[in-house]
Amino acid sequence: MRAASASGKGERCRILSVKIRTQPDVVVARQRARQLATLLGFSLSDQAALATAVSEIARNALQHAGEGVVAFEASPNTNPPFLWVEVTDNGPGIPDVPAVLGGAGSGSGLIATRRLTDKLEITSSEKGTRVLLGKAFPFSSKAITAGTLAEISGKLVQANRADPQDEFQEQGRELIRVLEALRERESELAARNIELGRLNLELEETNRGVVALYGELEERAAELRRANELKSQFLSHVSHEFRTPLNSISALTQLLLRRTDGVLTSEQEKQVSFIRQAAEGLVEIVNDLLDLAKVEAGKTEVRNSQVEVSQIFGAIRALMRPLATNDDVALIFEEPSPRLTIETDEAKLGQILRNLVSNALKYTERGEVRISASLIHDGGAITFSVSDTGIGITPEDRELVFKEFSQVHHSMQQRVKGTGLGLSLSRKLATLLGGSLELTSEVGVGSTFILTLPVQPGAPFTAAPAGAPSVEGKAATVLIVDDEETSRYIARRLFPDALYRIVESNGPEAAERARFERPDLIILDLIMPGRTGFEVMDELKGNPETRDIPVVIHTSKSITSADLQRLGGRHLALLPKAGAGRKMAFEAIRKALSNERLFSEQPEFAHRRKDEA
Prior knowledge:
Blueprint: E1 13-20, H1 23-39, H2 44-65, E2 68-75, E3 82-89, H3 97-101, H4 108-116, E4 119-125, E5 128-136, H5 146-158, H6 164-257, H7 266-297, E6 305-308, H8 309-320, E7 329-333, E8 341-344, H9 346-362, E9 367-376, E10 381-388, H10 422-432, E11 436-442, E12 446-454, E13 470-471, E14 474-475, E15 477-481, H11 485-492, E16 501-505, H12 507-517, E17 521-524, H13 533-541, E18 551-555, H14 561-567, E19 573-576, H15 583-593, H16 606-612
Helix pairs in contact: 1-2, 2-4, 6-7, 7-10, 8-9, 9-10, 12-13
């Protein structure tokens, strides 16, 4: 039923009234209600409902007060227009109207009437009772004016009084129509039940399929675990087998180069040197493979000791100096804080740092390689930073470099050789030591590897890579709200995985997700099914827990002045999904996330990259 205003605001026009003194008068009131509803364009079901309600209330007035008046009125100027029926009597009144409407006593007629109409008001006292029924005009009805109502009133006045027999027959026909409608509803319900049963069967079959799929996945996972174990065993066995002959080759070439058994020609010396270099390269690969196999097999022992950071820096400086053969590259070790110590496995920490520094020297043609260490998380952890001004790594390759035997394709690969094992092994060793190894990089600018380790073994901490804003020890979180997967993917690619934790949601769940995740930034689409971005914004800004979270509007919609008025200046910036006008939004996001290097790879900042180069 359509809701109406509380009491039919607007001027009411009286149409006609019927005095109720006898039972035939009740029939007349019923007939006039149906005729009036017909002339005003009400549907057959609404005609029957209104006639039945008027008949019930008029019969109550006759039964309890001996007589009454039924007045028909209309308020054509309200929204929506209403047809009103007022039934008044001078009877003893109804002692407790709320109780009667609640089902107490003989109030079933009033309860039924309330269901049949859009509005029911009852005023009762010892001096009488007034019942006001309201029925909203149908949307399809034509505009009703005071003149139209006067014309309708004239037709009803001239209409013959109802023959009770005819009215009873009409009431019977109405009942038949209602029964037919009920049968149609029952048929619809039966069809829906059949469809529901079919859907339940499909769901059960789907569930069985999912269970079978999980079982198959478990089998595949077990097979992969067995294959991984076999791979580790194979690597360990082959590496051990390779080590002995390679050591022999190294020893023999050393004897030849020392000229123990005679003088070598210059060409022979060059050839033996090549053999020795190849053997040393193979030994390096074998050692990395052995370490990798041990870590994956869980056979690597961690021997913790108190390590002074300045001492390990000194040892690595001495080992790496011979590799820093390029005069255009400065190898810089920042002096750590005095007596900065960490309890960890010194050999494995040194191995990780050597790998990182060696890689940085290989892929830096000019500039510097800088190594530093500092306490974070209130002294609970130490970050070791190895940064360079080298070739840099694209966002899509940042995880690739941590995979075994994977290397980034670059022209320098022709001059710089590597096994593709160093970074993979370093990350596994970092995890073994209870820490993490992360990467931030920009192509053509350089890379920074961040090794984060707890000061004490087993101490809990959350690693936050350099350059990533940190809130309560956690990487900054960005909530992306969009119903399209492609748009979420494009927005996600704006924020490096190593720097930010990305959470995705749709419109209906966005506000609840924001309350749960407490993100540092929200990227919000405007046009979404279920709940628009405007509605999400209202809910976010109306809640004290989320009102201060900066919101960036990410949309392909052409923003109008009405849209801006609807947003009310509560957004941080407007970020178009495509086209121009994005730089200002990028600058605002940088400021909100306290990261001036964010979006440096976007075309909007191309001139800045040229200036920096």
